[in-house]
Structures are given as structure tokens and as C-alpha cells.
Write a structure and sequence with these properties.
globular; 11 strands; alpha+beta; 207 residues; five-stranded antiparallel β-sheet
Length: 207
Amino acid sequence: MHAELVNADWRIAGDKLLTRDTETGLEWLNVEQTYRRSKADVSQLFGIDQEFEGFRFARLDEYQTLLKNAGIPLTFDRAEPSNNFFAGEVTNAKAALTLMDLIGYSVFMFKRGAPDDGHRRLHGVLEDGFSPILETFQPIDAITGENDGGLRARLSAAVLEDHQVGVDVGMFLVREAIVSAVPKRSSLAMLTLGSTLFAETCCGRMR
């Protein structure tokens, strides 16, 4: 089965706040929904009737799979990373940008009034505080100060304590994909009509 990442709705039709991985069956919440929130705060809201009911923090291996299914062939070393642990350059910058358009990002390094030049950062926290940073950028020539052409991407990581989570850092929350089984209104009407006719038929036979 070919993996595909598609937008899905979370709270209302058309909000597109979920990214569904059709291979794993996981739905990733847009990271912008948890910006400026602490991990401790978010973790208390997974219960029934809470804001993030049904969600949990994603694991490192699930994040790795998300990258792979997004077409980003770079994974983390499983060794315990140190602060500012650098993982390396991403070979498919376009895929990185596409993933961030799906799952959310914080825009950075923009000059006021400047055109969109592809600078994005996706920074989120995983289950054990492991915090990967995926970013796209255009390299700047050290002499001229101009973009030297082409979009690049890199991936780095750190372990963040709760007090180190900044305003542009979200939480990587996942849940099993939920496909509504509630019939449409017209379907309910047909179901009711069918049940009525069936009951009348049965009663007629019993008379």
C-alpha cells in the first residue's frame, strides 16, 4: 500500500486541522493548536470531554515513520541526544515544505514586506521531551548577502524541559483515525421508513 498524507477535519467540517497518514492510520493534530502551551498543560487534556480527547503524544518512531511517508529520507539516531543535537541535512526540501503545509509551522526569518522565500520551521515536542526541528531555507551567500538559489532543508533535535518550550514550539499529538459512522440525515429517514415498513409487514403476517 502506498503511503499518503491527507488533510482531515478535526472539530468542524473544512477546518483541515488533522493530517492523516493512510499507511499507519494515525491522525496528527496541527501543531499550531498547541503553541504557547506547556506539555504538562496539554497532557491533562486527553481525557473524555477534554480539549484533546483521544490524542496522545507521538513517539519518536512514529515521527520517523511520518517523515518517511512524507518522502523525507532522514531518521534520527536512537541514541540519547544532547541539547542542540544536530541530525543532518534533509535531501528532499520540497517534501519537507509540503509536510509543513499540511501539519503546520511557524514562519521565521521574514523581513517585513518581503516575498515568501520558503523559510519555515516545524518545531514540536514528542513523548519523552525529544523535540525535533524541521526547517526549510534558502542559503545566503556570505559575501553578497543574496540567496544563492534553491531550497534547502535540515533536521535537528534537542531534549526540552517544559520551561524551555517557546512560543513557536507545539506538541506532536496523534490519535487513531476516526471515521464517522453516523448516517446522513437522508439515510436516517430511509432507515426509519424501512424499519416501519418491515414492522408493518411482520404485523400483517401475524394477523
